[in-house]
Amino acid sequence: MRVAIVALDDLCLPRADRLRLAANVHPLFATRGPPGTHDPALGAEILRALRAGSGALLPRFDKGSDDRLPRAAWTGLEGPFDLILFEGWCVGARPQPPAALAAPVNALERLEDPQGTWRHYVNEALAGPYQALFAPIGFQMLLLAPDFPTVLAWRSEQEEKLRAERPGAGQSDAELARFVQHYERLTRHIAREMPARADLVARLGPDRRPVAVERRPYSTIAE
Q: Could you tell me if residue 220 is inside a domain?
């Protein structure tokens, strides 16, 4: 099979755009990753082109420099493809009920978003353009971590590899702990809400190996 892989991480906004959001909406938008810090319109355009059988130019985001690479470094894909794999942390996520946003889930929200401005904006973005981006998904798979502390441990391993490959790059342990808190609310929401509707759920152990795989019996891959 010919498979095209599109990563949500590569749709992150350039650093300059995120800094504008941070200045105009809320300082927490300087950090990449949560809804509101991607370009869902660009992602939808890429998926439309790939589904139509034509080629597409995929952006690339460099986590070491925390910025999108120049267009000359983007990846070209030539269709047609048998399968499009769209992967990423919150792919397919749905927004929370507004009432669920009232109480902070961690120190980051309590101290840096006491009025809830950031988390409401994130939720509204997820309810709007992100749902249009996720709409074409025909088969939803969830890789489910055992708990949120394990998410931090896994992300720490990734950061250690980055620091080893590129001395001076990456985040310190304290910076990483704060960084991961940006993702906690939606990670916990996905773990509660998505398993009941995902076509396939792989429950992972601390070593990342599946300990259980659940498949909806009536699920089919959309043509």
A: no
